[in-house]
Amino acid sequence: xxxxxxxxxxxxxxxxxxxxxxxxxxxxxxxxxxxxxxxxxxxxxxxxxxxxxxxxxxxxxxxxxxxxxxxxxxxxxxxxxxxxxxxxxxxxxxxxxxxxxxxxxxxxxxxxxxxxxxxxxxxxxxxxxxxxxxxxxxxxxxxxxxxxxxxxxxxxxxxxxxxxxxxxxxxxxxxxxxxxxxxxxxxxxxxxxxxxxxxxxxxxxxxxxxxxxxxxxxxxxxxxxxxxxxxxxxxxxxxxxxxxxxxxxxxxxxxxxxxxxxxxxxxxxxxxxxxxxxxxxxxxxxxxxxxxxxxxxxxxxxxxxxxxxxxxxxxxxxxxxxxxxxxxxxxxxxxxxxxxxxxxxxxxxxxxxxxxxxxxxxxxxxxxxxxxxxxxxxxxx
Length: 381
Prior knowledge:
Blueprint: H1 6-25, H2 30-57, H3 61-78, H4 86-96, H5 100-122, H6 126-217, H7 221-246, H8 258-273, E1 276-282, H9 289-310, E2 314-320, E3 324-329, H10 344-353, E4 358-363, E5 369-374
Parallel strand pairs: 1-2
Antiparallel strand pairs: 2-3, 3-5, 4-5
Helix pairs in contact: 1-2, 2-3, 3-4, 3-5, 4-5, 4-6, 5-6, 6-7, 6-9, 6-10, 8-9, 9-10
């Protein structure tokens, strides 16, 4: 409000109207009329010189208010009909002073000075004092009520602007946190993908190389060729998986469905490790691709754990219905309650948590291990 152009129009228009009224009414004498014109001219000049700046940024607000108070009293003392100058004097004083308390004091001072102007020109008989007191009391109360209301609106607007700025900053921070969370989630996904695919393939390559070296040292040259063929095949598949991972596509081959993918996975694991793998699938309905990927990843991780830890001779993978898969080995087993710093089971649980799935581990030392993967019904169609 303080910087609006309509202040210029209001002040200039009011001064011109008062000047015209002063010229028409011809109050109590030529010198009063001339004094009133001079006071109005000074009022307008003060507004132009530093009043607008006071309204805009509060600079020289007290000096401008004091000028307005004095000149308003002079104008009224010259001609009571010009008392309408209060219509702009009260709001100008209120807005020009930034402190609410000082603005109230200035409004009271303006009412007193204008009252003095009335009494100077009209006299100090009881009737004039009573009329002046009533008129100025009403003007003062109205000015204070309007001023406090305007001030409260300005304060609420400032608070609202502050809240909007804080909300904008909070939204920016949330957006940044969301991006960071997305980056972290992507890193975790890549870590799982690397562990589930490339790390497993490289582990298989190492074991095949060690086996080929043992066979070569034992003079079993015929088997070495098969091992080298497996190493080349595994290396090529690892290269494909790596390129797929870099291209942000899941390195999963699901041609023929989940049952066929598990058969290929079991056959390859059997060739690489010599551990027999049996796969059975009792599927009712069709699998959603996301569910197939999760199940295949869990099967890969389960077989990776068998290869690294179980010393098993046989593994069975059984797929039941559309949401349950069990992987059982006849290895050495372990105690699931003991702390485990490996990534395999943790990564499997994290992967299943993304689709609200669960992992149950049943094992004990010397009794083998059974992993049960369960997916919610909502993951499948």
